[in-house]
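hey so u asked for the seq, here:
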Amino acid sequence: MSPPRLTHTKNGIHLLINDKPFLMLPGELHNSSLSSARYMSEVWEEMKSNNINTLLGAVTWEMIEPVEGEFDFQELDKVILDARKYGIHLVLLWFGSYKNGISTYVPHWAKRDSGRFPRVHVWDVELGRKRTVEMISPFCEAGWRADSTAFRKLMEHVKEVDEEHSTVVMVQVENETGVLGDSRDRSVIAEDAYKEGVPGGLLKHVRGSEGLHVRFQERYLERLPREVVEKEVYSWDSIFGPGNSADEAFMAHYISKYVGKVAEAGKEAYDIPFYTNTWLNFDDPSALDLHGYPIVVGGGARPGIYPSGGPCPHVTDIWRFNAPALDFLAPDLYFHDYELVCQDYTTPSTNPLFIPEQRRDEHGARRVWLAYATYSALGTSPFGVDTGAEIIGREYKLLAQTSQFLLNSPPSQRMGFFFDELPESGSPKGKEKWTKTFGKIEVIIERAFVFGKPGPGGGMVIQLGDETSLRFLVVGRGFQIRFRGLEEGVTFTGILDAREKEVDSESGELRTLRILNGDETRSGEFLIMPNDEPDYGGFPIAVTIPARTCIAEVEAYTICEAYM
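ran it, structure tokens below
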């Protein structure tokens, strides 16, 4: 069997495990969890019971190479064996040189040797001088060489112990890279590199490439020269704009080169999917609702508040140029506009969506439907899942039960959606109606009708059959679905048939649990997928009964009649 790999199909980019499409239902562990097999021994069963089939966990440079040139994989081997025993896959997070913009996970021997491993220097406005940051400079060749050696050894070992089993399915290379505290590294070696200007290869790439990211085009395209003149020096300011803008592009170039070298070394040892993750920027902090949390948790308004040079959308083209060994780039998504970020990190031909970190609360759990069904996500991964998996587990149960339909349908035949809690006063902030055209019919999703206060919800709709079909699989809770015929002459659109489905415990196939009609379809007007506890608002008749399985199949129909 082949090792885990990504493949392009008409249904999106899929992760193949043992040559079969696999839908990750992942969660990310706390940073230290995977360092201890004994700690994890009390985690596996809980993850399994909450339908989590993949765990993201850190493997740190200091853990595997405590003495330079001497590697220790004993604890990792125990973890891999236990994961295999429970049927849970792993995505290893390589905390090498960089984790959240600093170098806290490098071995002690590297930390102590600032001569061999020089650090980033930033300008401290309050001090009125430069200061040292605990971050190995991306201009340090000794740094990427030592990191590459360790990462190569790690991947060689993973291949040796796991290639026949595919317990480890992907690897994240470094974590949330970039410079914090300033827009760029201001050490002597960095200043010398800055004066050399934009490298010709990078300039030709962004000048001559088609399909540049829309965020890159918005910021930089008008500044790029129409023709690149050989031997002419183009300053970073002249190409990317003065100040922070040039500084961020400069750091993106050299950090991505550093990470690209590390990724390349690991890829040569064991060719499975690699990616790196992003601490996102936020251009307009005034639009960010953080409920009183500091702006830094949602990304900053300028480079240096968020890590300058990390793979934010507007510099992903620089990253793609320098780090081809990375199969894709991924956003850590907590407070941003969820759908906008999904769009920014989904390129059907080159960059599948994967969210390695997101919220594990109800707010985050509702949004996974959008990522999986609309944007063909490889997976969405709530952070800190080992101390709180119940909420995402409820959504993952439904995704697990219907994964065959999700994997076997093209993006044009599915959609995801969500509704947040309604505020006590004022207008709701998110969408109150989601629509999509499927062939000759429009699907309309709204909150589930109740006599009291409508609740939150989320789910997905998948068109069954070809693009002319009027049959749909409906999954989730807290919403209702209705239809509108789009063919000329249609005078009526309604529900022909609706059935609640359940999973057969032996075959795993869906079978009919009950026929839905009457109140559940409002006499054929729309199908209700209620919340677990609908609000009756004091109405004395229980007409909105909770769904038992939250899975249904519904068929629409239309009538065309001529009026005299």
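The longest helix spans residues 244-269. The mean pLDDT is 94.
lmk if thats what u needed
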